Amino acid sequence: MNILFTCVGRRNYLLHYFRQALNPGDRIIAADTDSTAPALAVADKPIIVPNVYSVDYVEIILKLCVRENISALMSLNDLELPILAAAKRRFQKIGVKLIISDKKVIETCSDKIETIRFSHKAKIATPKTYLSLDQAKNAIKNNAIKLPVVVKPRWGSASIGLEFPESMEEMELAYKFVSCKVLKGILYKPSMNHLDQAVLIQEKINGKEYGLDILNDLSGKPHQVYVKEKLSMRAGETDKAVLRKKPDLEAIGLKIGQTLGHIGNLDCDIFESDGSFYLLDMNPRFGGGYPFSHMAGARFPDALLAWIEGRSYDFKSFNWEYDQPFAKCDTLIKIRHE
What is the tens place of the pLDDT at every residue in 213-250? Predict the structure, then answer.
């Protein structure tokens, strides 16, 4: 079995997890636009590819799959997901299983407004959200929400443009600043059709933040939910976390997985405040918080590889280690030259 990971970036740990689950002779192929991406050093074969928005990007990935006899493909980047999902049938025709959710699921997760609509249908609370500066100002004046608030891109990734203004003046400045980041950065492409509503102002929820890893099989059926309490964040990713036994949140996770019908892992952010839960974000991929689930006993790569091969998987082999905190730390890796 040959597995291709695209946009691998810094996720060398994830490639290690899959290598541990693969059989001898199976290969990991890794692709990225940056030749210095740390995860490339973990692969059996690193490959440099163009930017995901290049006109020939899909063609290049398809040819790569044929050349390397790829069995399955997984993307680790939000911006790439809709591009590959749109070409899912083309990958199926060459015998590649695309472990990526369908276009509708990805749109629901990537567009924060669609996420809110999904949450309302699933009867899961979300923070109060406004699509314009004037709407947010009126909400504050009418005591519908209070400062500080959250200003962020509607189509966000990696916490780019996330601001927490504490006054009306700061909110106006933050709104302009985030709007400029959307216009000039990598978020422009997904936002380009709605630039007048590409920045959100949201109620700031105070309380405990949880990260959920929700594992669905290749038909979109949920099997496992891991609930981690986030202890600290760094550079937009979970830096320290601990697995908690939270039946109420596990039930919400199963409900999300069943209703959404995603493929593979879904990374969710949920806040608990005054006994209520608020869904913030859903990312239909392995997120930066998955290592904490893995260290606490999850073996999602084992299950996914079994399903790719058409086998069932016995989740009794999972060991749950609750209430043991884990923390990330920096390591140096020799950059591979080809």
Answer: 999 999 999 999 999 999 998 877 889 999 999 999 99
For the chain, the residue count is 338
Alpha-carbon distance of 295 to 25, in angstroms, equals 25
pLDDT score, position 334:
86
What is the pLDDT averaged over residues 197-207? 96
Identify the three-state secondary structure at position 283.
strand
Query: How far from 181 is each of 115, 156, 174, 265, 309, CA to CA, in Å?
Result: 22, 11, 10, 29, 43
What tokens were used for 67?
A: 């050349």
Residue with tokens 């493929």: 263
Domains in the chain, CATH or no CATH each: 2-100 (3.40.50.20), 130-203 (3.30.1490.20), 205-327 (3.30.470.20)
Q: Amino acid identity, residue 300?
A: F
CB contact set of 45 (below 8 Å; sequence gap of 6+): 27, 28, 29, 30, 68
Residue 172, classed as helix, strand or coil, is: helix
Q: How many CB atoms lie within 10 A of CB 140?
A: 17
Q: What is the DSSP pairing of strand 199-203 with strand 97-98?
A: unpaired
